[in-house]
Amino acid sequence: MTTTLDWYGCATFGLRTAGMHILLDAYVDRAATAAGPGLRAEDITDCDWIVIGHAHFDHLYGAERIAPATGARIVAGYESVRLLEALGVPLEQMVPVAGGETVDLGNGCRVTAYPSQHSCVWSHGQMPQAGEVCLGDLGVTWQEQQTRMQALTRHLATALDPVAGEHLQAALAGHSDRGDGGALLFLFELPDGSLLFQDTSGHWSGVLAHLRPDVAILAAAGRGNVDGEPVQGTLADFVARQAELLGAPRILLSHHDDWLPGFSVDTDLVPVRAALARRCPEVELLEPGYCAGTVLFG
Q1: What are phi and psi of 256, to 5 degrees?
Q2: What angle, rounded to 10 degrees, do the helices at 235-246 and 270-279 form?
């Protein structure tokens, strides 16, 4: 049995294993000016499960069309489930999780949810590059973070080109402004190996240190979040520290393409490769393009 992974852009992947197609996040649609494979949610015609890391539009948008069209069941946090139910996805088609639950996906596959952290998106107006040193912003209260997020929202309303702006408005339609809803990590136990899925640059160190996946998908975008505080240093070092904590022999990256021009950046992977070589030179970094059908194990 061979497990393969297709990257659809941003943090969305198509996992094919044990005769099933499992979507990791559901953000397939893109603005015409953005990087991506040129697919839309309507192009996903076979899907058994959708596993969603958190409730932001660039992870959730599309699930409200894919699940009803394909019959796929959704595993997601409670805020994501609330939003999708409001958008017409039947509640009985969804499995809400908060961390600690193991879901039997069938055909010898299971997935366990773990509590995680979202990147410190409130700390910047545009995503920093992987080698950029970011310092400060420690001890910022929830109220101040909300004020900064409101400023970011106003910034995006004027910073994006009309094509990206129109796409953003469409993606936000029907979704709330209640935040990420609580980011989650997922560890898949598959017939031929284990896979960790992370869709935003944050973690609880105590959680990550006890997981030992064969392959890990790690987010490489924005300001890293370590145990509730913004990383002091670079995104590249943040990714390498995560790889070191996990001890996974192979890693792939997520969220690192220019998925929303005007806000996102095409992440420079040179600093990431250098940081990995320093901290965990035994780790293999896989760098597939879109829809590459990467073989994960063996």
Answers
A1: -105, 5
A2: 40
Class of residue 97 by CB neighbours under 10 A (exposed 0-12, middle 13-18, buried 19+)? buried
Instruction: Answer whether 116's CB lies under 8 Å from 184's CB.
Output: yes
Could you list the residue range(s) of the whole structural domain that residue 237 is in?
4-121+175-295
Whether the CB-CB separation of 71 and 44 falls below 8 Å is answered with no
pTM over 0.85: yes
Give the chain's residues under pLDDT 50.
Answer: none
In a domain, 269, yes or no: yes
* pLDDT recorded at residue 178: 80
CA dist 43 to 26, 29, 168, 173, 214, Å?
12, 10, 20, 20, 30
pLDDT digits (tens, 9 = 90+) for 30-66: 999 998 999 999 999 999 999 999 999 999 999 999 9
Residue 93 lies in a domain: yes
Rounded CA separation 89/81 (Å): 9
Domain assignment of residue 219, yes or no: yes
Q: How far apart are CA 147 and CA 258, in angstroms?
A: 26
Let me know if residue 137 belongs to a domain.
no
Contacts of 129 (CB under 8 A, 6+ apart): 235, 265, 267, 268, 271
Map residue 226 onto helix, strand or coil. Answer: strand
Q: Determine contact, residues 178/212, Cβ cutoff 8 Å.
A: no
